[in-house]
UniProtKB/TrEMBL annotation:
Name of this protein: 26 kDa antigen
Function field: Thiol-specific peroxidase that catalyzes the reduction of hydrogen peroxide and organic hydroperoxides to water and alcohols, respectively. Plays a role in cell protection against oxidative stress by detoxifying peroxides.
Domain Thioredoxin: 1-161
Organism: Arcobacter nitrofigilis (strain ATCC 33309 / DSM 7299 / CCUG 15893 / LMG 7604 / NCTC 12251 / CI)
Keyword list, A-Z: Cytoplasm, Disulfide bond, Oxidoreductase, Peroxidase, Redox-active center
Record carries keyword Transcription regulation: no
GO biological process, one term: response to oxidative stress
PANTHER family according to UniProt: THIOREDOXIN PEROXIDASE (PTHR10681), THIOREDOXIN-DEPENDENT PEROXIDE REDUCTASE, MITOCHONDRIAL (PTHR10681:SF128)
Main location: cytoplasm
Length: 198
C-alpha cells in the first residue's frame, strides 16, 4: 500500500501534451505546484480506457487551476501512445490529450505502484500525490470498471483543503463545505449541524 508513503520515482519515455516524445520524463520533475495525479490504464486502442483518458483531458484545466498535474501510464510504447493521440475520437482514438502519456514498456513502473496484473497490463490505478511526493489517495479498479474523474477532482480539493486549513474532510465533502476539527469536540460540533445531510 502506497498511501502515506513517497510515490515511487521513475524516469521513462513519454509523449508530452504537445506531441513531443522525450526519453527522460521524470515523475518528481513533473509534479505540479500542489501535486499530481498519476493514473494507470491497461492498453492503448482499447475500450474503457479512451473514455477515462478523454474525461481526464476534458478536465485538465480544472486540475491545472488547482496546481495539480496529470500523468497517464500504460505498458504501451511511446509510438503506440503517439498513434492513439493522432487517431480522431470518432475513430476510437483519444485525440491530442492535454497531459503526458508515459511508456512503461518494462512494466517496472506498474510493478512499483503495485498495479501490474497478470504480468501483462496495469489495472486502473489512480494515485493522488502531494507536492512533496507523498501518496495521499489511491484507488485501483478491475479492468472493466471505469473511473469517475470528478471524484478525483473532489479528492484533490479535499487534499488542498486539509493542507491549507489543517482540518479533516467528512464524508461527501465538497469544495466550499465546512471542514471538521479532528477532536472529539470538533466531531460533535460538525455532526450536530450536519448529521442529517450524511
Amino acid at each position: 500500500m502506497l498511501v502515506t508513503k513517497k510515490a515511487p520515482d521513475f524516469t521513462a519515455t513519454a509523449v508530452l501534451a504537445d506531441g513531443q516524445i522525450v526519453e527522460d520524463f521524470n515523475l518528481y520533475e513533473n509534479i505540479g505546484e500542489k501535486g499530481a495525479v498519476v493514473f494507470f490504464y491497461p492498453l492503448d486502442f482499447t475500450f474503457v480506457c479512451p473514455s477515462e483518458i478523454i474525461a481526464f483531458s476534458k478536465r485538465a484545466d480544472e486540475f491545472k487551476e488547482r496546481g495539480v498535474s496529470i500523468i497517464g501510464v500504460s505498458v504501451d510504447s511511446q509510438f503506440s501512445h503517439f498513434a492513439w493521440r493522432e487517431t480522431p475520437i470518432e475513430n476510437g482514438g483519444i485525440g491530442r490529450v492535454k497531459f503526458p502519456l508515459v511508456a512503461d514498456l518494462s512494466k517496472q513502473i506498474s510493478k512499483d505502484f503495485d498495479v501490474l496484473f497478470g504480468e501483462s497490463v496495469a489495472l486502473r490505478g489512480s494515485f493522488l500525490i502531494d507536492a512533496d511526493g507523498t501518496v495521499r489517495h489511491a484507488v485501483i479498479n478491475d479492468l472493466p470498471l471505469g473511473r469517475n474523474i470528478d471524484e478525483m477532482i473532489r479528492m484533490v480539493d479535499t487534499m488542498l483543503f486539509t493542507n491549507e486549513h489543517g482540518e479533516v474532510c467528512p464524508a461527501g465533502w465538497q469544495k466550499g463545505d465546512e471542514g471538521m476539527k479532528d477532536t472529539t469536540e470538533g466531531v460533535a460540533e460538525y455532526l450536530s449541524k450536519n448529521a442529517d445531510k450524511l
